[in-house]
Amino acid sequence: MPTFEILKANDGLVLTIICIGAVYSEKRDLYQVRRMMELVKDAVKNASRVYNVVRGVIQEGNQPLGSLESDIEELQALYMLKVLFCWHGTPSQRADARKNFDTVVEIARRMVISPAVPGQATYSVLHQPGPISQDALLTWTWSSWIAQEKRSRVAFTLFLLDAALVMYFNNEPKFDPLEFRLPLPCDDAAWEAKTEQECRDALGLNGPSKLVHNVCGSQRPRQPDMRSAMRGLMEPNYTFASRSTNIYSKFILIHALIVQICKFQRSSFLQNITGQFGHGATASGPGTPLGQNDWIASDGNNNIGTPGDTPQAHNAQIQPVLKSIQLAMSKWKSIWDMDIAIQYPQNGIGYRRFGFSRDGIHF
């Protein structure tokens, strides 16, 4: 992120970044690295306001969680430490990291999984549900947009870590995709902008002619919110318009669907099927009707993309949920195939590489 200033960053976050570098350094052996991880973890937790508030060690006082600029960086440090211990720790360190993930999840629920409301310093008009009016766009500021987008991205990285723990460690998922009322992450061109003007251009706020440097993104000022996107995938009456999402958003959505498959396979999910995707959950809570979103194209055909019967469908109780998941996977694949040719045009040899890691997903 071009606006990140390491000299002004939270000490715990900087220390964690240094620790990550040490993990991959050839100058430190495995014992030294794991010992350093323990020391850094203790230091970060002891100094973290958000961690100690949730643990009940200190009082929140008149500064709610998330109100301080350092709060989000403390959460980032805690997240990075969880990744370090889950992937580079001893068996006991990995088990402890998974066991204590609940605290980080609770911090996230209180700080980042919902957008800021008017009056808060991080309130951003492009992170709110519902249609965006021209009058509202006039109130857009780069600083508040960055602050909210940073929180959103931290929320989704935590969601992806939770998904990884479900897939690789058979953990029970801590997050439900329907909890996230945040827009999916913005296009990389907007996030990586070095000036306010570049960001406005990448978001399309200065007109379509300024989108020339945002080839591989959605070219939309706001991504679909996670909750609505999942509903759009799993409900049969809706399809996504072309270029509705960027590749990172698709990456998050496919992990959300995989988590639903894992939940489906677990006996606890089968025993508590009522209210899950495909029925009660899709209609619960306030929200913008899907058909009012510009990224939705209603196909008007309940059978489009609906897979045929499977052996599991003989169980009348689980059949609707199974079909909704299969339908969602089919829709996701169609969206991927449709957008990949537009957002990553071929150069005559193969797909052009944009960046190093995230844009290499489809390679």
UniProtKB/TrEMBL annotation:
It is found in: Nucleus. InterPro entries: VerF-like, XnlR_reg_dom. It comes from Aureobasidium melanogenum. One of its GO terms (cellular component) is nucleus. Residues 281-314 are annotated as: Disordered. One of its GO terms (biological process) is DNA-templated transcription. This is Xylanolytic transcriptional activator regulatory domain-containing protein. GO terms for molecular function: DNA-binding transcription factor activity, RNA polymerase II-specific; RNA polymerase II cis-regulatory region sequence-specific DNA binding; zinc ion binding. Residues 8-201 form the Xylanolytic transcriptional activator regulatory domain. Keywords: Metal-binding, Nucleus, Repeat, Zinc, Zinc-finger.
